[in-house]
Amino acid sequence: MRVKICGIMDVNTAKVAIDYGADALGFVFAESKRKISPEKAGVIISQLPKEVIKVGVFVNETEDEIERIAAIAGLTHIQLHGDETAVFSSALSLPVIKAVSFQSNDALASYHQYPCEYLLLDGPKGKYRGGNGTAFEWTDVNTNLLKEKKIILAGGLNADNVEEAIKIISPYMVDVSSGVETDGVKDFTKIKSFIEKAKGILLV
């Protein structure tokens, strides 16, 4: 199982997460308590292994600004967490992760043709579009609707529930931010435990 640790804000946390086995790191450029500047993200990313996926998280940002930030930071993927259209997604120069707050299977089905490399299933919207640490009912998801997409599961995951979530959804990757924090700060013990639990699951 692949793991993405989102909301990275310093190089030490990034390196620790990778040492523990993280496959992808997320950098938030939208309004969030974890928002980072493109320049700071670039300093961190410049010190990371090439094979690690570096994701920039955006909410209803302009195409020009996304491309500008991606170039400064050295991103490999763009995560769209707002109301971005299919045409908008298609115009971007990097692979796209489209985040969707799961509400119903009917709504989910509408993303079948959305142009993206990955579809990220997230919990309900809160103060921010993502990173609210709220789970949804995984058993409600009709996974047959998603067979042609690489699914990233997010929203309220932590070391205690990630195994169950993986078994129900069988995602391509799991994504965590607040679930590996203590008092709003990334907790290395929680990161290690989460990655170990996620990668310990063998899907039939």
UniProtKB/TrEMBL annotation:
InterPro entries: Aldolase_TIM, PRAI_dom, RibuloseP-bd_barrel, TrpF_fam. Coiled coil: none annotated. CDD domains: PRAI. Its EC number is 5.3.1.24. It catalyses: N-(5-phospho-beta-D-ribosyl)anthranilate = 1-(2-carboxyphenylamino)-1-deoxy-D-ribulose 5-phosphate. One of its GO terms (biological process) is L-tryptophan biosynthetic process. It is an enzyme of class 5 (isomerase). GO terms for molecular function: phosphoribosylanthranilate isomerase activity. Residues 3-196 form the N-(5'phosphoribosyl) anthranilate isomerase (PRAI) domain. Keywords: Amino-acid biosynthesis, Aromatic amino acid biosynthesis, Isomerase, Tryptophan biosynthesis. Pfam families: PRAI (PF00697). It comes from the Bacteria. Pathway: Amino-acid biosynthesis; L-tryptophan biosynthesis; L-tryptophan from chorismate: step 3/5. SUPFAM superfamilies: Ribulose-phoshate binding barrel. HAMAP family: PRAI. Belongs to the TrpF family. This is N-(5'-phosphoribosyl)anthranilate isomerase. It comes from Neobacillus novalis. The gene is trpF.
